[in-house]
Write a structure and sequence with these properties.
Blueprint: H1 2-7, E1 16-25, E2 36-38, E3 43-52, E4 58-65, H2 70-84, E5 90-92, H3 100-108, E6 112-114, H4 126-133, E7 138-141, E8 144-147
Parallel strand pairs: 1-5, 5-6
Antiparallel strand pairs: 1-3, 2-3, 3-4, 7-8
Helix pairs in contact: 2-3
């Protein structure tokens, strides 16, 4: 990852990231114990909770049942992020990551929660959220990731 970041003119370690969730429908062959229902998105399946840097490179990934809340999973995600990427000082998030999670990020982990405030009001983080929607230029098709439009397969 550090080589890719340096080629793009960035520091070796990221200092900011974006956290978000992607819900994916699960096939009937997926055990019921590992899937759940996300009422907000009306999806019965799993969720990928991901943190990406400004280039869209994945920093942390956790897969849960779709019924897991962003706040509960976000707690483990931010702790893991802090352990692996100690330079992170800012993480953009949407309104799903509110409450005590904001306090944990700010006070304990020393990560500034960008894009939202303690009350859950969302700020201007649309450009940063786009990095999560298409991490590293990959597009989700079914249950597989493919290079996005205009992107090569790589070396």
């Amino acid at each position: 990852m550090s080589r890719v970041r340096q080629t793009a003119g960035r520091d070796r370690e990221p200092t900011a990231g974006t956290i978000d969730t992607q819900s994916v429908k699960a096939a009937t062959s997926v055990p019921a114990a590992s899937r759940g229902f996300d009422g907000a998105k009306e999806v019965n399946g799993r969720e990928r909770h991901i943190v990406v840097d400004a280039l869209g490179l994945l920093l942390t990934v956790v897969v849960t049942a779709a019924s897991a809340t962003d706040r509960d999973t976000g707690r483990a995600m931010l702790v893991r992020l802090r352990e692996r990427h100690w330079c992170i000082t800012l993480v953009w998030a949407d309104g799903g990551y509110t409450g005590r999670l904001v306090d944990l990020a700010r006070d304990t982990l020393r990560i500034a929660p960008g894009g939202l405030e303690r009350g859950g009001r969302v700020g201007p983080a649309a450009a940063e959220q786009a990095a999560v929607e298409e991490p590293a230029g990959l597009v989700l098709c079914g249950d597989r990731l493919f290079p996005g439009p205009g992107r090569s397969q790589g070396p």
